[in-house]
Amino acid sequence: VSTQSTGRWNELLQLIPQRDQLLQDALVKEERKDELRKTFAKQANWFANWSTEEQTKISQSTMGPDLTLNEQLTYLGELLEEVESYKPVYEELENLNKKIQNEVIFNNPYCKHTMESLNVSWDELHNSVARQKSAVENQILVRDSKGINEEQVREMKGAFDHFDKNDDGRLDHFEFRACLVSLGYNVDTEEHLVNHNPADSERQSDFERVLQMVDPDMTGQVTFQAFMDFMTQEACDTDTAEQIIASFRVLAGDKRYILPEEIRRELPDNQAEYCIARMSPYEGHDGCMGALDYMSFAT
């Protein structure tokens, strides 16, 4: 019995250092895991705060009338370069996350951010700057090609952005209608838009005709570019109508009506007859026999 006890005691003495080594290895492994958690948390928290600050810079790039479109474009170009310069930081986070996955670490009490949430933040940040830069480039293109000033562009962009609730650069048809109403357009009621059958061409509304211009494929979405094209065309049409009325007013000697002989005296025969045929009789009390309403020609 004594010999057996001695043998077991010797075995136990041999197991003790092995157990101590296992515990020490487990402690070292847990410390390594904890250091990984802290390193990831430190960089992730910094990256998340930096991303939020950059998003604020994007918002400030187009706020207020202080920056011209060209200045906004320069600012956003520099901001895009700045964002892209931090890609190595993002990639380092990805490498840390791979190490965490290899160590089978599932929780991190030092950080509320996950790599998935940081992926979303990075994509949103990069895409947001690029999208904003592209939008400003489009505004400059419209400004230069349509001959409108920056104040008009700013007004249109402000109205569009106000109704672009999800900030994706598109308006659905109801948002587009509300935007037009805010700009002073008289369009159909929402009930009419809901209940009206677009196939009924005889009852087609003015708003539906507008939709055919801005959303010809009826995707249900109106892009900012289509919105700008429509608004600038409307402004152009308005300017043209006002110019026509002003021209006829001069021919009429500042009267509110014009006589056929006054038109024939100033215009070639074919143009004169064309204009006369398309003018309504003047119904004002200050008119005379044969007076024509030249405003009806432009409207």
Q: How many individual β-strands? A: 4
* Radius of gyration based on Cα positions: 36 Å
Protein structure class:
mainly alpha
Percent helix range: over 70%
- Identify the overall geometry: rod-shaped
How would a crystallographer describe the biggest sheet?
2 strands, antiparallel
Distance between the termini: 120 Å
- Provide the spatial order of strands within the biggest beta sheet: 1-2
Low-confidence stretches: 189-204
**Into which percentage range does the β-strand content fall?**
under 5%
SSE order, as H and E? HHHHHEHHHEHHHEEH
Output mean pLDDT: 83
Number of helices: 12
Describe this protein with a few key phrases.
single chain, two-stranded antiparallel sheet, 4 strands
Walk me through the structure.
The chain is mainly alpha-helical and 299 residues long. It contains twelve helices and four strands. It has helices at residues 2-61, 69-85, 87-102, 115-146, 150-163, 173-182, 190-195, 206-214, 224-251, 260-266, 269-277, 295-298; strands at 170-172, 221-223, 280-281, 292-293. The strands form two sheets. It has a two-stranded antiparallel sheet. α4 (115-146) runs parallel beside α9 (224-251) and α5 crosses α9. The longest helix is centred in the first third of the chain and has 60 residues, at 2-61. The N and C termini lie far apart (120 Å).
